[in-house]
Specification:
α1 runs antiparallel to α2, α9 crosses α11 and α13 packs across α20. A 5-stranded parallel β-sheet has the order 15-17-18-19-20. A 4-stranded parallel β-sheet has the order 1-10-9-8, covered by helices on one side. A 3-stranded mixed β-sheet has the order 11-14-16. 46% of the residues are buried. Among the domains are: 137 residues, no CATH class; 350 residues, TIM Barrel, CATH 3.20.20.210. It is of the alpha/beta class. Its EC number is 2.1.1.14.
Length: 702
C-alpha cells in the first residue's frame, strides 16, 4: 500500500532557514551561504521521508519565501515596477517582490485560504508577458534524484494560480483573470506533459462530506485516490483505528491498488518535530504528533492497510487516545457551565456607537484624524535578551520589571515626541500576541520549538489548547496602568481577542471550536473589565485572524461569523459608554464580510489597507455606511521601505473621499514589532506630519 506526504515545513527544526534569510537580508552573509542552508534542509527532509518508507515524496514544496511567489517567478509574471529585464529570476527581483525595496513597494500579501500562512498575490493583466523564468521546480527534482530520491514535484495549478491573483494596477476591476489561462499553459507544458489526470487527492479531515460522497456516489474507474486522513493542520496524534476504518471503506470503493494514504494538506501548517520538545510534559506529549511524527503515522496506516500492522504502535496510539479522553486536566465544569449560560443573549452594549463616540470624545478630547499605532514597537536584541534571561532565571523579577519599565518609558516618550495622540506601551513584555495570553490562561500548553511559518522568515509558536479555558489572574493590567502613569495622553490597553487566540492556536478537536471560543471570550471579558477599573479609557481587542477562520464552504459562513462576532461582543458588553473599544484586523479579504465587521460593534477598527492597494476603500465607495471610527492603514509595516509624508497624505485624501472626517483615524497597517527603530521613527514622523497637513487643509477649507 502506497503512502504520500503533500508537503513539509520549510524553516527547519531549529528555524535554520529563518536565520539564514535574515542574515542574507541584513548583508551579513552571501547568496551562497543562504543556498547552502536551503540545500541541506531539503536533503534532510527527503532523506527523512525516504527512510520512513514514504513512496510519493514531494519536491518543490521548499520556498525561500512563498510558493505562490515561486509560481510567479516560474511564469515570469514580474510587475513592471521591479525593472526585471528577463532571464532567470534571481534573489534581487524575487525578494523585492516579496518585501519591497528602497524605491518600490512590495506586492500585496494575504492569507492562504483559512490558514495563518500569507502568500504574495500575483498582479496580472492583459499585457502581462509570461515566460519560463525560474527553473526551481526542475532543479529541485534533479537535486533529489542525485541523492537517490525519486520525488513528485508539486506545483500551484494554473487555474488556482489565476484565481489567487488580482488585476494589476491600472487594469479594470472586472478583468477576467481566467482569460489568461491559454497564456500560462505553455509554461506549464514546458515542465510537464499535462496529460490526463491519473489521481485525485482529498482532504478527509476538514472535508467532512467528502468521504460520504466517494462511498455513496463512487469514484472514477482506474484513477488513484490519495486519501488525506492524517491532519496536516493540527498537532493531535491521529486516531489510527478510526483512520484505518476510513481507509478500509475507501478501499472497498476504489480498490487496494488505487488507494494511497496521505496527509490532508501540506504539513507546513504544523510544528516540525516533537523530539525537539523539552517544555511539554509526558502526558500531553503522548497526545501529540508534529510533522515528523505524522510522516510515521502515514506510513504506519499504509502498512496496516497492506496487512503489515504494527500492533504495538497501534496499541500505544489507542492508549494515548483513551488517556486524553479521561484526563481530569481537560475538563473544568465551572467553565463549561459559564460558557453554556451565554446562549440566549447577543451581548451587545446598551448604547449605539454614535452616542458612545460622542461620550468618548468628551472624555478623550482628540483632534480630528487622531493618530495611533497598532500596539507593538520594535523588539530589540537587548529586549529579547532581558526576556530570555528572566525566563532562564538569570535575572531577578525586580531586575526584569525595572528593565521592562525602562523600555515602556522609552516608547512612551518617543510617541510623545512624535506627537501621536493615542499611545501604546509597545508590548516589550510580550513574546507573541497569542502565546503571551495563553501562558496566563488555564487549558493551554506551550512548546519550546513548535514554530510554524506565517510569512517569509516570520514564524509563530502557536499555543496548544488542550482543555477548558479560564483566566486565573489579571494578565495585562499592571503593565497598562504603569504605562498610563507615564503620560497624560490616552494609553491603549492591548489585548488579543478570543477568535484570534483560537485561530492562531492548535485547538482541541474533542469539542466544537465555538465552545472553546466562548470560553476564551469570558476570560478576555474579565481582563477588559479589570483594565477599565484600572483607569484605562481605550482598550484594543485585536481580532487580526477573524477572517481567516471563515470556512471554505459558503454554506458554513453564516454560522461561523455568528459565533465569531458574538465572541468578540461578549468581551466588552458590560463596560461604560466612555470606554473606547478598538479592534484590529490585518492581511485578509474583508470586503465580503464587512457587514459582520460592522456587527462586531467596536467603537474604532484599524485595518490593513496600504499593501492591498486600498481594496478596503472600495467597499465604502460602493455605498456601505460605516458609523464607527475606522483607521485603514496608511503604510505597510512588513516592508523596510519608509513612506514619505506626501505619500501618506495622499492616502489620507483617498480615504476622506469615502469616509467622514470625524470617524477617520491615521495609523500604520499593523504592529511594529518586526521593524527597526531606524525605520519606525522616520515612518511615524511622516505619518504624523501627513495627518497634521491634512488637518490644516481641512481647517482652511472651512
Amino acid at each position: 500500500m502506497a503512502s504520500h506526504i503533500v508537503g513539509y515545513p520549510r524553516m527547519g527544526p531549529k528555524r535554520e532557514l529563518k536565520f539564514a534569510l535574515e542574515s542574507f537580508w541584513d548583508g551579513k552573509s552571501t547568496a551562497e551561504d543562504l543556498e547552502k542552508v536551503a540545500t541541506d534542509l531539503r536533503a534532510s527532509i527527503w532523506k527523512q521521508m525516504a527512510d520512513a518508507g514514504i513512496k510519493y515524496i514531494p519536491s518543490n514544496t521548499f520556498s525561500y519565501y512563498d510558493q505562490v511567489l515561486d509560481t510567479t517567478a516560474m511564469l515570469g509574471a514580474v510587475p513592471e515596477r521591479y525593472s526585471w529585464t528577463g532571464g532567470e529570476i534571481g534573489f534581487d527581483t524575487y525578494f523585492s517582490m516579496a518585501r519591497g525595496n528602497a524605491t518600490v513597494p512590495a506586492m500585496e500579501m494575504t492569507k492562504w485560504f483559512d490558514t495563518n500562512y500569507h502568500f504574495i498575490v500575483p498582479e496580472l493583466g492583459p499585457n502581462t508577458k509570461f515566460s519560463y523564468a525560474s527553473h526551481k521546480a526542475v532543479n529541485e527534482y534533479k537535486e533529489a534524484k542525485a541523492l537517490g530520491v525519486d520525488t513528485v514535484p508539486v506545483l500551484v495549478g494554473p487555474v488556482s494560480y489565476l484565481l489567487l491573483s488580482k488585476p494589476a494596477k491600472g487594469v479594470e476591476k472586472g478583468f477576467p483573470l481566467l482569460s489568461l489561462l491559454s497564456s500560462i499553459l505553455p509554461v506549464y507544458k514546458t515542465l510537464t506533459s499535462l496529460s490526463s489526470v491519473t489521481a485525485y487527492g482529498f482532504d478527509l479531515v476538514r472535508g467532512t462530506q467528502t468521504l460520504g460522497l466517494v462511498t455513496s456516489a463512487g469514484f472514477p474507474a482506474g484513477k488513484y485516490l490519495f486519501a488525506g486522513v492524517v491532519d496536516g493542520r493540527n498537532i493531535w496524534a491521529d486516531d489510527l483505528a478510526t483512520s484505518l476504518s476510513t481507509l478500509q471503506s475507501l478501499e472497498a470503493v476504489v480498490g487496494k491498488d488505487k488507494l494511497v494514504v496521505s496527509t490532508s494538506c501540506s504539513l507546513m501548517h504544523t510544528a516540525v518535530d516533537l523530539v525537539n520538545e523539552t517544555k511539554l510534559d509526558s502526558e500531553i506529549k503522548s497526545w501529540l504528533a508534529f510533522a515528523a511524527q505524522k510522516v510515521v503515522e502515514v506510513d504506519a496506516l499504509a502498512k496496516a492497510l497492506a496487512g503489515q500492522k504494527d500492533e504495538a504502535y497501534f496499541a500505544a496510539n489507542a492508549a494515548a487516545q483513551a488517556s486524553r479522553k479521561s484526563s481530569p486536566r481537560v475538563t473544568n465544569e465551572e467553565v463549561q457551565k459559564a460558557a453554556a449560560a451565554l446562549k440566549g443573549s447577543d451581548h451587545r452594549r446598551g448604547t449605539n456607537v454614535s452616542a458612545r463616540l460622542d461620550a468618548q470624545q468628551k472624555k478623550l478630547n482628540l483632534p480630528i484624524l487622531p493618530t495611533t499605532t497598532i500596539g507593538s514597537f520594535p523588539q530589540t536584541v537587548e529586549l529579547r535578551r532581558v526576556r530570555r534571561e528572566y525566563k532562564a532565571k538569570k535575572i531577578s523579577e525586580e531586575e526584569y520589571v525595572t528593565a521592562i519599565k525602562e523600555e515602556i518609558n522609552k516608547v512612551v516618550k518617543l510617541q510623545e515626541e512624535l506627537d501621536i495622540d493615542v499611545l501604546v506601551h509597545g508590548e516589550p513584555e510580550r513574546n507573541d500576541m497569542v502565546e503571551y495570553f495563553g501562558e496566563q490562561l488555564s487549558g493551554f500548553a506551550f512548546t519550546a520549538n513548535g514554530w510554524v511559518q506565517s510569512y517569509g522568515s516570520r514564524c509563530v509558536k502557536p499555543p496548544i489548547i488542550y482543555g477548558d479555558v479560564s483566566r486565573p489572574n489579571p494578565m495585562t493590567v499592571f503593565w497598562s496602568k504603569t504605562a498610563q502613569s507615564m503620560t497624560s495622553r490616552p494609553m491603549k490597553g492591548m489585548l488579543t481577542g478570543p477568535v484570534t487566540i483560537l485561530n492562531w492556536s492548535f485547538v482541541r478537536n474533542d469539542q466544537p471550536r465555538f465552545e472553546t471560543c466562548y470560553q476564551i471570550a469570558l476570560a478576555i471579558k474579565k481582563e477588559v473589565e479589570d483594565l477599565e477599573a484600572g483607569g484605562i479609557q481605550v482598550i484594543q481587542i485585536d481580532e487580526a485572524a477573524l477572517r481567516e477562520g471563515l470556512p471554505l464552504r459558503k454554506a458554513e459562513h453564516a454560522f461561523y461569523l455568528d459565533w465569531a462576532v458574538h465572541s468578540f461582543r461578549i468581551t466588552n458588553c458590560e463596560i461604560q459608554d466612555t470606554t473606547q473599544i478598538h479592534t484590529h484586523m490585518c492581511y485578509s479579504n474583508f470586503n465580503d464580510i464587512i457587514h459582520s465587521i460592522i456587527d462586531m460593534d467596536a467603537d474604532v477598527i484599524t485595518i490593513e489597507n496600504s499593501r492591498s492597494d486600498e481594496k478596503l476603500l472600495s467597499v465604502f465607495r460602493e455605498g456601505v455606511k460605516y458609523g464607527a471610527g475606522i483607521g485603514p492603514g496608511v503604510y505597510d509595516i512588513h516592508s523596510p521601505r519608509i513612506p514619505s509624508a506626501e505619500e501618506i497624505a495622499d492616502r489620507i485624501d483617498k480615504m476622506l473621499a469615502v469616509l467622514d472626517t470625524n470617524i477617520l483615524w491615521v495609523n500604520p497597517d499593523c504592529g511594529l514589532k518586526t521593524r527597526k527603530y531606524t525605520e519606525v521613527k522616520p515612518a511615524l514622523t511622516n505619518m504624523v506630519s501627513a495627518a497634521k497637513l491634512i488637518r490644516t487643509q481641512l481647517a482652511s477649507a472651512k
